[in-house]
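Input sequence (364 aa), recorded before submission:
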Amino acid sequence: MSKMIGAPTRYRQGKDELKCLGDDLKDYKRIVVITSENLKEMFIPQIEESLHEQEMTVVLFQNECSMSEIERIRHIVEETNGEVIVGVGGGKVLDTTKACGYYTKKPIVVIPTAASTDAPCSSLSVIYHDDHTFDHYLYLPKSPDQVIVDTQVIANAPVRLLRAGIGDAFSTYFEAKACYVSHSENCLHSQVTRSALAISKACFDIVYSYGLQAVEDCKQHKVTEALENVIEANIYLSGIGFESGGEAVGHGLHNAFTLIPETKSKMHGEKVAFCTLVQLVLENTPKDTLKSYYEFLEALELPTTLSDLGMKEVDEESLLHVCLEAVKEGSTTLNMPFEVTSKNLLKAIIKADQYGQKWKTSGK
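Predicted structure, token format:
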């Protein structure tokens, strides 16, 4: 099997990049912008000012990246004869934008308003049902045409979003390494390259070294070197790393946890953080190393126990249901270099939760 690495055609990051959007889209006359209701007043006036010479149609995203929502927006793009689709928002808005670009065969530009996921750079959209449970992965033929990251916009966003992005980025190297060792397919349906593994490791090194400082800087809405580094790791390095490096338990188990109603209030990266700890327990990571990762996530206020995910009582029957879902054929949970069953996965979840409780209360 061949090896492959994917990336957006252009990635640009810096302070006040939104002001340059008109130059980026100067070749297009009719632009469709997808954003959410809560972001409309904050960003559309800036975008309108930058795109004053173009005709712009604003489409408000309706709650979920589902096939029904993608179809609704597809019709609007076709009715307005849109030439390019611009997504402004978080992971679900951007995944919807990428899917609409695929179905309409239009170029896409993604502008993340938070560094909360690694969705912007990937050629993948995570599709959910309208009830917010996981549906399927939509694999796209290419990554976005442009990814534009205004770091002041990221610095102004709620700090919880940055933390969630760090939780997502934290998983990237461990999952890529599992796929590399097991010779599993990455998200491009090819073998993992050494470049992808190196990018994934750089992603981990940056968030582990700069994550805590970046969070403090984000609280002050300051664009600093630490915050710039972590934004690049969360969005670009993690985006390339997960797609070209592959996914394993961290994301496969996350998808299964969407079946648990108590976890619905938690963000993608928050759930992935705990599920990555489960993977590390499953891999028999040395206890001192494992404890340092728990302490890192705890310092970032990311979940280290089932209670942190919203499951106040450990219900083994519900957890077994999650595990059975997580080990179904096609799940990335099976990309480990050893057999993963519902039985050993359940044990790892319970053990990961116990470690989290122990180290949260005693620090020992």
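Checked by second reader. The domain at 10-156 is CATH 3.40.50.1970 (Rossmann fold).
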